[in-house]
UniProtKB/TrEMBL annotation:
Binding site for ATP: R59, N63, T119, S145, S153, R197, Y236
Catalysis performed (reactions): L-threonine + hydrogencarbonate + ATP = L-threonylcarbamoyladenylate + diphosphate + H2O
Keywords for this protein: ATP-binding, Cytoplasm, Nucleotide-binding, Nucleotidyltransferase, Transferase, tRNA processing
Protein role: Required for the formation of a threonylcarbamoyl group on adenosine at position 37 (t(6)A37) in tRNAs that read codons beginning with adenine.
Pfam family, one: Sua5_yciO_yrdC
An annotated GO BP: tRNA processing
Xref: PROSITE patterns: YRDC
Domain (YrdC-like): residue spans on this chain: 14-201
Origin organism lineage: Bacteria, Bacillati, Bacillota, Bacilli, Bacillales
Source species of the chain: Peribacillus saganii
GO cellular component: cytoplasm
Name of the featured protein: Threonylcarbamoyl-AMP synthase
């Protein structure tokens, strides 16, 4: 494990970056921070390296990986073409939590990165540690979130260790991640780009740059087949049974009482303001004030992991409005809950 100080100049020359960069070059796995969540990096050109990612995470091999780059020159090397709208998005949001899906250049990356697709997902993370590491390794880096498949994504080095200790060569620890939710994935291969996964950049922000975009049908309708292969798997799930609740706090209090009577331990995922209402529950976490979606996004996965430590049997979560960052938050909450919503 290397601990880095993001604020030093010329980070790229420090052993905390040059050592893990060397490991990446020799096809080992290294976890590193990005502005969204920690990534599990591997040389995207090597079958051997990329195979290790799927093994360490227990990830289905039909779920392609995002390729992380540190310069636009690297993009030219892996993408066959960059349509005008993709270019505009890149100019507006890179480095940042936006992933663009483009036609891939044949024969450059390991086929395992793209799971046999003709397209490649690419992003340039907005984190000095990630950018220095990718630049020092001087190769495109395939990196899914650095969690065991199905678990909440890691927003701190501790989470990576909890899931992957003993399975990877090392972790670059750059502290907690800022955004806390993964990047927005936008398919730019069609005339009208489509959001395949909501994330750190909102639909509203994207449309302000390139005009109307589509939203993959599967994001609106849980039964439709998603275009982003990863979106079909259960995700982000805490160990307890997690339910979202559309209703008043008094209704949630009633649910807590019913479970208590059955001898079950309950948790509530709520707001700072509502925390005090659920004293009957065994664990109440309200990490952000109502409406503070940035704070909620940043603490979402950590909160789901904390419930695991509290050993509750059932968790009730309050819903948030699906606007702005709220769309990505609700997408993750719904997946964590296996789309189970209790309506009052
Ligand atoms: O913020 C992020 O994007 C983080 C950090 C580490 O950069 N990475 C991340 O990777 O979330 P992962 O592997 O957990 O999610 C990648 C998503 C999956 O839903 C996958 O199916 C989709 O991107 N994806 C990758 N390549 C694709 C492609 N060619 N076409 C469509 N979807 C693709
Ligand atoms: Mg993931």
């Amino acid at each position: 494990k290397w601990i880095v100080d993001k604020d030093v100049d010329n980070l790229k020359t420090y052993p905390q970056i040059t050592e893990p960069a060397e490991l990446l070059k020799t096809n080992e796995l290294v976890a590193f921070p990005t502005e969204t969540v920690y990534g599990l990096g591997a040389n995207a050109k090597s079958d051997e390296a990329v195979e290790k990612i799927f093994l360490a995470k227990g990830r289905p091999s039909d779920n392609p990986l995002i390729v992380h780059i540190a310069s636009k020159e690297q993009l030219q090397q892996i993408a066959e073409e960059i349509p005008a709208k993709a270019e505009s998005l890149i100019d507006a949001f890179w480095p940042g939590p936006l992933t663009v899906v483009l036609k891939k250049k044949a024969g450059v990356l390991s086929e395992k990165v793209t799971a046999g697709l003709e397209t490649v997902a690419v992003r340039m993370p907005d984190d000095p540690v990630a950018l220095s590491l990718i630049a020092a390794a001087d190769i495109p880096i395939a990196a899914p979130s650095a969690n065991t498949s199905g678990r909440p994504s890691p927003t701190a080095a501790r989470h990576v260790l909890d899931d992957l200790e003993g399975k990877i060569a090392g972790i670059v620890d750059g502290g907690s991640t800022g955004v806390g939710l993964e990047s927005t994935v936008v398919d730019c291969t069609e005339a009208v780009p489509a959001i395949l996964r909501p994330g750190g950049v909102t639909k509203e922000e994207i449309e302000s740059v390139i005009g109307p975009v589509k939203v993959d049908e599967a994001l609106k309708n849980a039964a439709a087949a998603p275009k982003s292969p990863g979106m079909k798997y259960t995700h982000y799930a805490p160990k307890a049974d997690f339910f979202l609740v559309k209703g008043e706090p008094s209704f949630i209090q009633q649910l807590i009482e019913e479970n208590k009577a059955k001898g079950l331990r309950t948790g509530v995922f709520t707001t700072l303001e509502n925390k005090h209402l659920y004293e009957a529950a065994d664990a109440v976490i309200g990490p952000a004030a109502a409406g503070d979606l940035k704070k909620l996004a940043a603490s979402l996965y950590g909160t789901l992991r904390t419930f695991d430590e509290k050993e509750v049997d059932i968790i009730y979560g309050e819903v948030v409005p699906e606007e702005g960052l709220g769309s990505a938050i609700m997408n993750r909450l719904l997946k964590a809950a296996g789309h189970r919503v209790i309506e009052q």
